Amino acid sequence: MTLTELKYIVAVARERHFGRAAEACFVSQPTLSVAIRKLEEELGVVLFERGGAEVGITPIGLRVVAQAQKVLEEGANLREIARQGHDPLEGPLRVGVIYTVGPYLLPYLVPEQIRRTPQMPLLLQENYTARLLELLRQGEIDCAIVALPLPDTGLSQCALYDEPFYVALPHSHPWAQETQIDSARLKEETMLLLGAGHCFRDQVLEVCPELSRFSASSEGIQRTFEGSSLETIRHMVAAGIGITVLPASALGMQGVESRLLRFVPFKPPAPDRRVVLVWRKSFPRQAAIEALIQAVRHCGMPGVTMLEDPAPVAAESDG
Predict the structure, then answer these.
(1) Pairing state of beta strands 313-314 and 191-194?
(2) Of 24, 30, 67, 218, which has the highest C-beta tally within 10 A?
(3) Distance of alpha carbon 235 from its chain centroid, rounded?
(4) What is the model's pTM?
(5) Around Cβ 152, how many Cβ atoms within 10 Å?
(6) What's the confidence (pLDDT) of residue 253?
(7) Residues 186-233 pLDDT 10s
(8) What are phi and psi of 272, to 5 degrees?
(9) 3-class secondary-structure state, position 60
(10) In this predicted model, what pLDDT tens digit does every residue of 230-267 receive, in sequence order?
(11) pLDDT at residue 233, as a whole number
(12) Helix 29-43 vs helix 3-15: crossing angle, to nearest 10
């Protein structure tokens, strides 16, 4: 039994597909399949139900995969403990960032972090919240910058900043000269939203009740388009295709389309989101986590309210 084999079974359990799991592990599918067969033979149990379009997990397989995740996490911690013996701020910090935060935070964060701790380069990865939490549990990344709400993860977390949402409109839109917009009015318009899987889409639907209620109704929103990124949607709004909702941090991005847009705040109580840093409770480089928190809070990103918690807050449940 090897850590590599454990990594393979965790990947298959996550992807529910041998081919996709092999791609995620950067190996060929035969290599991954042979390794998993070998592990099953060694353990004397069947971990996965093969044959269908989607790979199933046997009851004993669920238990083995859960334990494998813990072993992978502890293996990552061993390396970090050894590194901490020298200097907890020495060496890379692997940071995951959700798609709707990365483009707006990182241009401010990276220079500030380099100025503060040049010996601790950030290895950055963008992804969806669910995927980042999986990578975090597996020890593939050290921490992640995500937005609330989160599932009951059992991870430690620290609030970084709050940011309000704005309605983005073409300059020619009838609402462009208004000072505030009631969220209930969004159902009257052609809305441009992120596609399924993006947590910001869910946040917009949650904090704008009328939008959530009517988004699937022919009597509600006239039409709804889905984009792959906030920047794609911003360009579509600038082209006059519809309107959208953006977080405050996205307003400061400069481009040709910015001259064609108008950003209008919501009528109070304005919807917003809280961005947090999460990490494993057992992660040994706490000084590195604190250094990243301080770099975020002092990076000077416009449009947000930085939060000065007295100390990081750990989730109580082991999820």
Answers:
(1) unpaired
(2) 24
(3) 23
(4) 0.71
(5) 10
(6) 62
(7) 878 888 888 777 788 777 777 665 555 544 444 444 445 666 788 888
(8) -155, 180
(9) helix
(10) 888 888 888 888 889 999 998 876 555 567 889 999 99
(11) 87
(12) 110
Mean pLDDT of the chain: 84
List Cα–Cα distances, 43 to 1, 13, 16, 181, in angstroms. Answer: 9, 17, 21, 61
> CA nearest 176: which of 234, 263, 266, 267?
263
Question: How far from the centroid of its chain's Cα atoms is residue 297's Cα?
Answer: 19
Compute the half-sphere exposure of residue 9: CA atoms within 13 Å on the CB side of its CA: 31
Amino acid at 56: G
Give the torsion sign (CA, 210, 213, 217, 219). negative
204 sits in which H/E element: helix 199-207
Show the CA angle centred on residue 103, arms to residues 14 and 109, nearest 5°: 105
Cβ contact 275:129 at 8 Å = no
Length of the chain: 319
Token pair 């409109």 is found at 169
